[in-house]
Amino acid sequence: MNRQQIESAARDLHRAERQSQQIGLLSLAHKDMSLKDAYAIQRHLVDMKCADGRRIIGWKIGLTSKAMQRALSIDTPDSGVLFDDMLFENGSTIPQGRFIEPRIEAEIAFILRQPLTANPSRQEMSDAIEAAVPTLEILDTRIVRADPTTGRLRNVFDTVADNAANAGIVLGDYRHPVSAFDLRRVGAIVQRNDEVEETGLGAGVCNDPLAALAWLASILAQSDQSMRSGDIILSGSFIRPVEARPGSQFTADFGEFGSVSINFAA
After folding, report:
1. Are strands 166-171 and 249-253 parallel, antiparallel or unpaired?
2. pLDDT per position as a tens digit, 23-43
3. Is pTM beyond 0.85 here?
């Protein structure tokens, strides 16, 4: 894709979010689209949001499980940027119309006390993390999930361009030293309206959520970026996304690690 096409795609995504109206598949409109193009669109979209006054508060890592990578024919995670208006209080209610097609995922988030640069050791990551936190992520898509004419599904290029489907984050009230738990064995029971929808373990995230953090540090360094003090990092979901229909109430029970909940207005 050329620069004009990249900027046009970013503008379309920016408008789609503001108007709550999805656009067509970018991967269908640009058949030669690459992952590099998708990240270029994402960067331009992030610049537009910053120009609107939105503040970057961290990063999201996605596609960390082998099952999701195989489903999208990709062998690496992806990443996106978190903004201040994505942060919701634990137990709060999302008003109707805030999102287009929201879904929920459970994961472990990290809050950093100091920056992280490329190729960090496990000790460097532990030293840099202020706290590990039980978290719900709200996903949304400003791009249709499937093209109505061809039936073609959204792919990883569409998702990356759409800022990795970022929409919202809900941090639990518990804050833990990263050494207090074996994060591979931290799990959650996710309920929607008191019915169990999904369960999972931290090991589903690159076999270790800290491995996802190391991946992000190295990827950001390739574009002269890094994670900063105070950043919130979503390490990746260890459950499949659950549809968040109006009137849904979600709770993720992480056991001793804590719990986190969010509601969607009916």
Report:
1. unpaired
2. 999 999 999 999 999 999 999
3. yes
